[in-house]
Each structure stands twice: as structure tokens, then as C-alpha cells.
From TrEMBL, chain A:
Its cofactor is [2Fe-2S] cluster. PANTHER family: NADH DEHYDROGENASE [UBIQUINONE] FLAVOPROTEIN 2, MITOCHONDRIAL (PTHR10371:SF3), NADH DEHYDROGENASE UBIQUINONE FLAVOPROTEIN 2, MITOCHONDRIAL (PTHR10371). Belongs to the complex I 24 kDa subunit family. One of its GO terms (molecular function) is NADH dehydrogenase activity. SUPFAM superfamilies: Thioredoxin-like. Pfam families: 2Fe-2S_thioredx. It comes from the Bacteria. Coiled coil: none annotated. This is NADH dehydrogenase subunit E. Keywords: 2Fe-2S, Iron, Iron-sulfur, Metal-binding. It comes from Paractinoplanes ferrugineus. Residues 317-328 have a biased composition (Low complexity).
Automatic annotation (TrEMBL), chain B:
It is an enzyme of class 7 (translocase). The gene is nuoF. Keywords: 4Fe-4S, Flavoprotein, FMN, Iron, Iron-sulfur, Metal-binding, NAD, Quinone, Translocase. Its cofactor is [4Fe-4S] cluster; FMN. Belongs to the complex I 51 kDa subunit family. InterPro entries: NADH-UbQ_OxRdtase_51kDa_CS, NADH-UbQ_OxRdtase_suF, Nuo51_FMN-bd, Nuo51_FMN-bd_sf, Nuop51_4Fe4S-bd, Nuop51_4Fe4S-bd_sf, Soluble_ligand-bd. It comes from the Bacteria. This is NADH-quinone oxidoreductase subunit F. One of its GO terms (molecular function) is FMN binding. SUPFAM superfamilies: Nqo1 FMN-binding domain-like (SSF142019), Nqo1 middle domain-like (SSF142984), Nqo1C-terminal domain-like (SSF140490). It comes from Paractinoplanes ferrugineus.
Amino acid sequence: MSDTAIEFSPAAAPLAATLLGPALEIIARYPEGRSRSALLPLLHLVQTEEGYVSPNGVAFCAEVLGINKAQVGAVATFYTMYKRKPTGEYLVSVCTNTLCNMMGGQEVYDRLIEHLGVGNGHTTPDGQITVEHAECLAACDYAPVVTVNYDFAVDEATPEATIDMVEQLRKGERPVPSRGARVCSLKEMQHQLAGFADERDGAVADGPAGVPTLRGVNLADQHGIAVPNFNLDAPITKTKPAPREEAAQPGAKGKVATIAEKATDAVKSAAGAVKSAAQRGDNAGKPTHAGDAKDPEVRTAEQRNPTMGEPDKTGDATATAPTPTNPAEASGVAQNQPAGDGKPVADSRGNEVEK
Amino acid sequence: MTQPRREVLEKLTPVLTKRWLSPDAWKIDVYERLDGYAALKKALDVHPDDLIQLVKDSGLRGRGGAGFPTGLKWGFIPQGDGKPHYLVVNADEGEPGTCKDLPLMTYDPHSLVEGIIIASYAIRANQAFIYIRGEAVHAARRLRSAVKQAYAKGYLGTNILGSGFDLDLVVHSGAGAYICGEETALLDSLEGFRGQPRLRPPFPAIAGLYASPTVVNNVGTIASVPYIVLGGADWWKSMGTEKSTGPMIYSLSGRIQNPGQYECGLGITLRELIELAGGMKPGHNLKFWTPGGSSTPLLTAEHIDTPMDFEGVAAQGSLLGTTAMQIFSDQDCPVYATWRWLEFYHHESCGKCTPCREGNYWMVRTYRRILSGEGTHADLDTLLDTANNIFGRSFCGLGDGAATPVMATLNHFKQDYLDYIEGRTAPRLSAKSLVGAH
């Protein structure tokens, strides 16, 4: 599928100059022919450069994956973390879901909005802070919580503590978050969301476990409570040999060759043998649901997405098109390459260049 | 605050949470010293079918909310079908109130990685994914570091520990969509589409990721596997109840003295959990609570002695869910709480099916009207009618989850609604939020 020979449109080319390398690295994580799985991380990657999912970013994702922009746009607009307008250096999220809300989160949010003078999802004029109210951030034992670039920044937040932290950020300081790694910019965070390691020295080690997280286990520890009779060597009932034991047996019977070498070979061949036996459906005596390739359930799946089972056809623009029978139809088809979902590519690369 | 009594303290079962006490357990060498990867070595000496049987024998049930028997799920994967198999870990923790998986992945990420390798070996998958919630950045950071370390040590990659078994593991960050916690929506999202649920059947065990046999398990489920492999099924069953075996991380939040994570055998009661958590906050009396996140019908003070296992909670007409107990007191308004949950479901509804998309839209507006002091008695009928038309008629559980707090609060706390409508409670929302309500 995608290789370095992709020709990018003028819209996507500037991004491709910096992002193509990491983009191909992302695509390589997924199984052969399943490049569309890379779309979510690719959209995060676009935000590392653009700060939001820009039209150029959409074009870049579409072209690198060989799908159309409408397909990318449909995905980008579905998810909350893909921003549709430029964001600030820091994204401050206040949880106002029920529990945080009632524990004071709504007040934190209201006071912060008033203090910054911007509304939900908006950015301060200095370009530093984008503020939003968030839904449950999975830290209810610290309610109410505030995050900066998604790292837990203020626990059991009060309006004062939150405003104080935000003011430090605006002054260019980098306050220490309560339980996340040291603060970075939102764009830097997007790089991690795209699946790349946090390269900052010590960042992975940051963020000690908070008191509420450890309350139960500390209580047990203090009172010397443990689950009794834990024996690491508890036997597992074996009804058949493990693949690697099965493989080791011929090695043991062998004459001279070093056992290690032979065992390794045997492991490989036995694994192959198991596999080929498995492929024959040679599972006598075992309950199995396999065998019928046209299981009604599979059939339903195929109807739902006919090209799903084949590599590189998940929504790919090169899915088989019907052959036109007259010239007018042929020229129409040529101008409107069908997409994988059967919709015409109204925003195809060719049209764009003409504009 | 009062000290918990000894007999209640003895209900604590630190198993999955135990390594959280070691601040460096996320590093592979520390993890290895704490029995880490011992279960993997043990598991690779056993035939995959025997491992599936072990998990069946342990009675382990899914920790993501539905409580489906894990061994049974693994057994559904057709073997010898010539198709690739996949293991997908659902780490999209987002159910309101739930906060058990994030600390596990942050402070003990290798236990999840080890569980994944064992589970993949059992179902014969050579590719596994962790679909982690996008917002969970620190947990993802630690997981990615753990995966990298595991590759370097030969626990991942080709021919793991000389067993001939290969496995690749990818940590995939989501992008902020609650619906992706629903397993088929998660699979669509992982395939690079909008996260919308699929019609079932086919179930993921037959046609899941890339239309291939797939097991989708919760973080807590998979992280339990190494302990079962080490300690055995009988030891595992020494915790919990007969039908709900093992330990469970109970997440307590709200109007209690010491909110936090308490790992206990399944079947403990809320009364005992509140005792462990140092009692209610001064001046607060228990009024209502969620047994397992906001999508489980809420319970009231009279249910305080319900055994918190799958059967016990179901007997009270609710669900164990994610054992995320949000505890509210007599100072909290159930109508306001329900409105706020509905705002959430309204925002997170994926829009695929009409009852959920439209129903939540209108219920939110009805709630705003009631909370602004403009409600009518007919609104209560409208709410109940709408909720009944969402419940059981939606594509996936999100719709049911949205309808349940409405039905439960109308059932238990109708007077609180009437107090707003009849003017005895001061309005909580201003008239400006009423736009579009009529």
C-alpha cells in the first residue's frame, strides 16, 4: 500500500514534507493491508503540526492512506479530541460530569471561564490557554479534577488552585501536575497520542500514585492483610502436551546433535505441523465452531462490508468499480472514482488542482 | 472518622492492586522481582486448550461490566480456521464513576502486558491491541514504555522465550469517544472508522477486528489472568462468591471520608465498603448511589446491604457494571444528577440509532425545563415515555444506560421532581439554558 512514492496534492505537500516519515512509521504498526487503522493516530499526528485537524491535515491523511477526504472528515468530526479550530499552548479541561460537578467541578469551571473571559472550547487572546469542560476523566476518587493537556494537573480542585495553576502556565512557568508527567505543550502531547514514546528524560517516571488510589491496598498493608494460600507453583491440569514440549521430544530421542539446537528446530517444525493440522481443521474430539466458511454470521459480516475480509479494501478508493457500457458513463466514472463505501469522490485530487 | 472493624478489613483482597505499593513496578526489572513474567513462563509450558480450561475453572468473569465468563469467550474462538485471530484489550475507561483501569495501567502496566501474552497464546492470536482511551495519557506513556521493555527482553516479538509463539502488541490511543468502550464500536474505531456499534450477530468471536475471530476483554479481566495461572483456579475461587469469583477493584467516590480504590472479594456490601472508606462525610447521609457507573440503575440507602456481585446486584434490578460506586447524600439532588448524566449521554450518543440520538436530545431539554422551574406534570410522563422508548430499543447499551437513571430516579425520587415542578425547590438552572426546550 502506501510507499514513499505518494504524490501529494499542493494542500498536503507541506505537511507531507515533515510528517511523511512518522506517518509511514505509524502505518507500519498495523497488519499488512490494514493501513486504515492508522487513521486515528495520523489525525493526532496532524495536530502536532497544525494544533487542530486542518483541511490540509485532512488532505494529508486521505492521500497517505489512499482514501478520500470525506472519509477522513467523517472520522475527524466524530471524536472530541480532534479539534476543529486552532488550540492554545495548553488545553485545560475541567470535569463537570455528575460526580465532579456536584463535588464542586461546576464552580471551578464557571469561575475559570469568568476569569479567562472565554467560553467552552475557546482560546485566550494570548494563545496560551484553551479551556473546555470535559466528561468523566476516570479519576472520581480525586473529584473534582482538572487536567492540562490530558495529564492530571489539579486534584480535589478548587477555583483558586485552578486559576493559580492556569496563571502560572500563562506566565510561561511549567507547574508540576499532581499525577501526570511534567507539563509539555499540547502539540508535543499529540506526538505521544500518535503512539510515539515520551522522549523527555524522566517523564515516564513522573506522577506518583496519589493517596486515594492506594487507600485500599495501604489499609490492607497496614493491617497485615493478604490473600492466603497463594502458591506460585499451583499445578495446571494438563490434558495434552504444550506445543513446545511436543517439539522437544524428538530432540530428546536424537543421537548426537546438541539438544538445544535440535529442540529449536523441532519447535519450529512442530509449530508448523500444528499449524498445518489446524488448517486442515483436524480437531477431532474438540468442540469447535470452525469449518463452515459461510457461517450465517460470517455471511452477515460480509454483507455489511463486502471488502472487509480482504486486505487493503477497507474503504479503499480502489475497490472494484463496474465497467461502464457507454462513453458518457465512462467519462463520468473516470471523473468520479468510486470510494470503498460506494460514494463518489467529489473532492478528488484532480478537481482540487484545477481550482 | 472511625476505624474499620477487623472483620471488615479482612474482606480486603490485595491482588491486582498489590504492586501499586511499589513505586517502580512499572519498570520491567522491578516487575520481574515481584513475580513478574513468572506466569508467562508457566503458561508456555501448557497447551493453549488447557489454559482456556484453567480460566473456565477459575470462574473469571469480565471486569468491564457485563460479567461474561472469560474462559467461555476464549473458547468461542474457532481454532484451525486458517484466519488470523486477534486479542483487543478494552482500555477505553470512561463510564462515569469508573477509575480502576487507569491506575492499574499506570502503576502496574506489565501485569496487563503479561496477561495479554498469555491470553493471546491461549486463543492463538499473533497480534494484540490495547485500545486505550485518548485522555489516559500517563497510563499510555507507561504502557508504551512497558511494551518496549517487554520486546527488549523477548517477552514480545517472535519465538517468545523459545516457545515458537509470536506476538506483536500495539498500544492504540483513542480520541475521545465514550461509545468506543462498546466492544463493536471499539473495533470499528480501531479499524479507522467512526466508533459506531455493529449489529450482532456476528459476534466478535466470529467476525471481529478485520472480520476475523477476535476476543475483546477489559483491562481488569486480562490483568487477572497471570494471577490465575500462578495461584490456580482454586485459589482464585477462594475469593468472591460461588458464581462471582475472585477479587474486584471497587472505586468509591463522592460523599465519603476516604474515596479511593478498594480491592475486595466480589460480594462485599456497600455498608462494608463505606466502613472501609471511613464512613460518610460529616453531615451527609446516604441517599442514592450507582453500583457500577452511571449506566447501571441507581440504588438507594435501602440497598446498602446488597452483596456487590453479579447476582446480588441483579436481584435488586440493577447491574454490577464496573463497580464504580458514586455515593450521593441527602444534600445532593437526584434530578440535577440525572440531568447532568443525560447531558453526558446526549453528548456521547454516536447518532447511529434514532431512539438514543433523538430521545436523549429531548430528555435533556425536558430536564433543563424542570430544573429551571418551568416544568409541568406532563413532563414526567414525557420523560418516562421517552425513557421507555429508548430502553431496549437502542442499538447498543448506551441508550439503555441513558434511560436507566431517568427511570430509576422517577421511581425512587418522584417527590424531588414534583418539588421543582410545584415550586418548592428553587430552580437550579437559569432561563437562558431553556432555549429550545419548548
